[in-house]
Amino acid sequence: MLPSATVENYLKAILKAQSADLPAHALVPMGQIATALGVAPGTATTMVKTLAESGLVRYEPYAGVRLTRSGEKLAALVLRRHRLIEQFLVEIMGMSWTEVHEEAEHLEHAVSERLIDRMDEMLGRPAVDPHGDPIPDPDGTVNRVRYDTLLTCPLHTAVTVQRVSDQDPEFLRFVERHDLRPGQVIEVEERSDAADSVRLRGGKNRPYTIGARAASKVLVQAIGTVILLFMLALPARAQAPPVPAAPAPAAAVEESPFGISDNSFLVEEAFNQERGVFQNIFGAARTGGQWASTFTQEWPAPAMTHQLSYTLAFVDGGSGAGAGDTLINYRYQAMEEGPGRPAFSPRASLVLPTGSVSEGRGSGSYGLQINLPFSKRRGAIYWHGNAGFTWLPRAEAAGSSAHANLWSPFFAGSTIYALRPMFHLMLEQVLLVDALYDGVDRFRTTSYTLSPGVRGGWNLGKAQLVGGVAVPITWENGGSDTGVFLYFSYELPFIKK
């Protein structure tokens, strides 16, 4: 049976019902399908029986219906056409997000897969449509991310609107009037069961109340990904220990238990790259179901006193994965470690706005990051401390042409114990007071991250390979999130000595 528009509508309705918090393998009640399509229950039952005969659904009388594997794939491709058409109408044609659903309902049955693939490419292969719904890939795979609603998210915690589950034009206009479009940052202050309402505080820093039914249709995620991007943006940073100015007398020489120096994950160490050696550093972190990664390359200029490096970011901003903002870094070895004194190596970084603001991957502003790292060893333990800030004088927000001046201080510290010269136990901490902008108002969130981890290394001739893993736990506004951090470094000489 060739899939007609009616068949595709039924399959799409069943798939959406299955995806709406239905337990695995549970059947969708026939009454729910009839209501979604606006038909009589008897009409829906007759059509579902026909679909079952074609192998697209599994139907059990008086119980319900569920898609087969082939039915799921066909339904997902219908959703893909629908949501890409909506995105195309908004982004390319300039139509309002409140009016594109009905247009897509008609067009999804008429366009070819070739045209859909071309639209997907033209749009930059978006991950979600204008309402925040995930767009299936060409194979019919849907990236399902579980979000809270305004009824279930933590109280007094900044959250970002990710999805609006009701595409009724009147409800979407209600969402616009209350600043609840995807990308907006809000906070739930109170829920009242008696009044069946939810009190919010939005971008204009004013409280307002909406009904519980409306709140259940707004899907949100606590702001936590920003913490990852900050941690990954701290360039990690040289590996060679400082070279003493002159050899000490033999009796005073203490053999260092550290076969690896530097290679911290979240806390910067105060050692520049030595002459003739450069380092390649890759870091990746996952939290809240999203990945962020960076690549940093460091070069002496030309020796340890001065160091130049750059940091490239790749981010899943929630609306699409791609390049984040870029850092160009300079670090000065102001003080080498010695008896009674720590190593000190201040860094200044130029922030380049290479990430997309609309997809949550960039700030839209040139900026400056300053960090003041100190490092000091005693026996088999190294202590490292950081203090600094990131300044973005003209930060942007998705959907707004205005700018904001943002200043975000941070403090960090770590303790590293050399269990063996090439195997270390690590405990890192980061306190971030992050300035944010939602297109209307500026506000701050404070987070604390505690990250236990391990690192190990191998000497390969004149090169050194270092790998590590950590489990960062972040507390923010009463909630917590546990992630994973992966680290890889390869250091090698570029000048024969």
Fold and architecture overview:
With 497 residues, this protein is of the alpha+beta class. The protein folds into three domains: 5-122, Arc Repressor Mutant, subunit A (Orthogonal Bundle); 148-222, Ferrous iron transport protein A (FeoA) (SH3 type barrels); 225-493, Porin, CATH 2.40.160.40. It is 20% helix and 39% strand. It is built from nine helices and 25 strands. The strands form three sheets. It has a twelve-stranded antiparallel barrel. A six-stranded antiparallel beta sheet has the order 3-8-4-5-6-7. Strands 1-2 form a two-stranded antiparallel sheet. Strand 18 (381-395) and strand 19 (404-420) form a beta hairpin. It is elongated. The chain starts with a helix and ends with a strand. Residues 235-255 have low confidence and may be disordered.
Number of helices: 9
The shape is elongated
Across the major sheet, the strand order is: 9-10-11-13-15-16-18-19-20-21-22-25
The radius of gyration is 27 Å
Uncertain runs with pLDDT below 50, 5 residues or more? 235-255
Instruction: Kindly report how far apart the N and C termini lie.
Output: 74 Å
**What is the strand tally?**
25
The main pleated sheet reads as: 12 strands, antiparallel, barrel
- Which CATH class of the largest domain applies here? Mainly Beta
Report the CATH architecture of the largest domain: Beta Barrel
The helix-and-strand class reads alpha+beta
State the share of residues found in helices, binned by percent.
10-25%
CATH T-level fold name of the largest domain: Porin
